[in-house]
Amino acid sequence: MAGVGVCTVGTCDLMDIDGYRATVEYDPDIEMLRDAFVDLNGGADFYAADLAKLREEGRQSLKVFLQMCEEDHVEPRKR
Questions:
Q1: Cα distances (Å, whole numbers) of residue 22 to 7, 71, 72, 73
Q2: What is the pLDDT of residue 9?
Q3: Which among 67, 29, 21 has a CA at the least distance from the CA of 45?
Q4: pLDDT digits (tens, 9 = 90+) for 40-69
Q5: Is 58 helix (H, G, I), strand (E, B) or coil?
Q6: 67 phi, psi to nearest 5 deg
Q7: Residue 79 lies in a domain
Q8: Residue span of the structural domain in which 60 resides
């Protein structure tokens, strides 16, 4: 899938979704993967049972976040 990859940096797993980085963690309480974007100027986290679905959920979450930023004339990335 173009634009999406998973890499390990030290002990932190990262997923790149269309140029935006997100941390990948496993939540044992709900037995799901949790991902949260780290470069955004707001919150956009998402959950899924496997990596393929996590990528899909991440793209959807990012799309909604970016649309909201555009509507509100807000820079999506942290400065």
A1: 10, 23, 23, 23
A2: 44
A3: 21
A4: 998 888 999 999 999 999 999 999 999 999
A5: helix
A6: -65, -45
A7: no
A8: 4-72
